[in-house]
Amino acid sequence: MTDRSAFLQGDRPLVMGVLNVTPDSFSDGGRFLSPAAAREQARRMIAEGADIIDVGGESTRPGAAPVGVEEELDRVVPVIEAIRAESDVPVSVDTSKPEVMTAACAAGADMINDVRALREPGALETAARLGRPVCLMHMRGEPRTMQAAPRYDDVVAEVEDFLRVRVAAAEAAGLPRRHLVIDPGFGFGKTLEHNLLLFQALPRLRRMGLAVLVGVSRKSMIGTILDQRPPPGRLHGSVALAGLAVWLGARIVRVHDVGATRDAVRVVQAVREAGAGEGGMHT
Question: Exactly one of 39, 132, 254, 262 is catalytic; which is it?
């Protein structure tokens, strides 16, 4: 039987390209809404070295409105089918809905990326039945309200506890541990300070023994640091954080700018691996 998690095995950091098939995503909403435009963007990202393409049909930016099942299916399934028809690069579906998970995997998706960490009714059972790797993300609240003054007593401890609970629930439902990836959910119910503390804590989260996914590309935390710079001007900050995330132990970085990030990740990894057989530095 084929190991569906084979593409996640090993030590090399993976670059996940973001493909938003939506009209309202915060950075590139509407640009790739048509299947033809989405297919061309997937081709570009694959040519630039993407290890995974993450296809999403529902925006989860702060304030985003929910999307119905049929509309989300109409957006993502044709794109996944088109990518699969011409490439064997792994495809992830960014969804929380069991119906979309099922249809996307039937269309050829290799992974489920769920911002709600399989908390929707039926999601745990569906993910276990489908047998694909799953990324479990932390989110405080819902996209429409999550940035309304989020508060934590200890953001790192609370995020870690949440992820441990969701990992245990996934394993209890029948998902093998090697199929699980964790994501601290930067920007999902967190202030800038919360995000920075979580970033510093990546080595601590890595000690949970699971692959860690970091998604900070073009996010508002970068814009805030850079004097309220809008998303199109956040490339350099995004690439810097992707490289730092890999240095701190992230296994997957989810990004809009694949080529530039791929270069940065390769350079960081070369430094990490230098002298590995001679007592070289490891984090």
Answer: 254
Degrees (nearest 5) of the Cα angle 246, 216, 271?
Answer: 20
Q: Please compute, for residue 251, the number of CA atoms within 13 A of its CA located in the half-sphere on the CB side.
A: 20
Residue pair 132/4 in contact (Cβ under 8 Å)? The answer is yes
Place of tokens 């039987």: 1
The first and second tokens of residue 246, run together, are: 């890999």
The yes-or-no answer on residue 97 being catalytic is no
If one looks up domain 12-275 in CATH, what number appears?
3.20.20.20
Query: Quick check: is 266 catalytic?
Result: no
Could you count the other beta carbons within 10 Å of the beta carbon of residue 29? 16
State the Cα–Cα distance between residues 69 and 98, nearest whole angstrom. Answer: 9
Q: Pick the catalytic residue: 219, 234, 251, 262?
A: 219
Per-residue 3-state assignment (H helix, E strand, C coil) for the chain: CCCCCHHHCCCCCEEEEEEECCCCCCCCCCCCCCHHHHHHHHHHHHHCCCCEEEEECCCCCCCCCCCCHHHHHHHHHHHHHHHHHHCCCCEEEECCCHHHHHHHHHHCCCEEEECCCCCCCCHHHHHHHHCCCEEEECCCCCCCCCCCCCCCCCHHHHHHHHHHHHHHHHHHHCCCHHHEEEECCCCCCCCHHHHHHHHHCHHHHHCCCCEEEECCCCCHHHHHHCCCCCHHHCHHHHHHHHHHHHHCCCCEEEECCHHHHHHHHHHHHHHHHCCHHHCCCCC
Convert the pLDDT of each residue in 157-177 to its tens digit: 999 999 999 999 999 999 999
Query: Over the stretch 109-164, which tens digit does the pLDDT of each residue have?
Result: 999 999 999 999 999 999 999 999 999 999 987 776 767 778 999 999 999 999 99
pTM of the model: 0.92
Closest by CA position to 73, among listed 100, 55, 91, 95: 100
